[in-house]
Amino acid sequence: MALMTMTWRHWFRWAATDPEAWVRCWRWIVQESESEAPDLRWDWWVYRGVNQLSDSRSAYSGDEYVDIVGVDSYDVSPAVRSESDWQKHLYSRYGLQFWVDFAAQHGKQFSVPEWG
Q1: Using one digit for the tens of pLDDT, what is the confidence trace for 56-69?
Q2: Cβ(15)–Cβ(8) below 8 Å
């Protein structure tokens, strides 16, 4: 029996494997939803670190369609067992600080919708 390696690309059907399609879909959902509920707030979020996209910012839907920039962060890749590990979570490529800065550059609040 062959083993199949699961990647983020295949884990969720709604993964942003096509950034342009993702942006179009997100914008459509926001526009349609706000036509009925104009006070909704939209939290656009990514997975901390490198994922199926070479740069998750390519799926950013634009300031008009996003109220909050969030990042999911888990105690893996690497597991946090030391100050050095924590620093990797904060400052590695697309780490927590990267997304805090990205949110600030766009005048958005920052969230951590999932932490584990």
Answers
A1: 888 899 999 999 99
A2: yes
